[in-house]
C-alpha cells in the first residue's frame, strides 16, 4: 500500500501542521496527510482528536523515515 502514498504530499502537510499555532490549520493539514496514508477515515471531519493527530504523525514519521529519539 505504501507505494500508492504520495510522500511529498504527506511531508508538505505534516511540515505545515508542525509550523503553525492555528489548531484549525493543523487539524486540516493532518487530516489531509492522514487520509493520504489511509490511517484515518476520509469522512470530511478534520476536527481530529489528539489521538488521531498522534496516529497521523507517527505514521508520517514511519513513512518518511524520521527517527524519534
Structure description:
This protein is an all-alpha fold. Helix 1 runs antiparallel to helix 2 (23-37), helix 1 crosses helix 3 and helix 2 packs across helix 3 (50-64). 61% of the residues lie in helices and 0% in strands. It starts with 6 loop residues before the first helix and ends in a 5-residue tail after the last helix. It has helices at 7-18, 23-37, 50-64. The mean pLDDT is 93. The protein has 3 helices and no strands.
On the 0-100 scale, what is the average pLDDT?
93
- Count of separate DSSP helical elements: 3
Low-confidence stretches: none
Q: How much strand?
A: under 5%
Multimeric status of the protein: single chain
Largest sheet: none
Order of helices and strands: HHH
SS-based structural class?
mainly alpha
**CA-to-CA gap between the ends?**
26 Å
Radius of gyration: 11 Å
Helix content: 55-70%
What labels would you give this structure?
69 residues, mainly alpha
Secondary-structure blueprint of this entry?
Blueprint (H helix, E strand, L loop, with lengths): L6 H12 L4 H15 L12 H15 L5
Helix pairs in contact: 1-2, 1-3, 2-3
Quick recap of the structure?
Helix content is 61%, strand content 0%. The protein is mainly α and 69 residues long.
Amino acid at each position: 500500500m505504501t507505494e500508492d502514498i504520495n510522500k511529498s504530499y504527506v511531508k508538505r502537510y505534516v511540515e505545515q501542521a508542525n509550523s503553525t499555532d492555528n489548531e484549525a490549520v493543523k487539524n486540516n493539514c493532518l487530516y489531509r496527510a492522514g487520509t493520504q496514508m489511509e490511517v484515518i477515515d476520509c469522512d470530511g471531519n478534520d476536527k481530529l482528536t489528539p489521538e488521531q493527530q498522534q496516529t497521523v504523525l507517527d505514521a508520517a514519521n514511519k513513512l518518511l523515515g524520521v527517527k524519534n529519539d
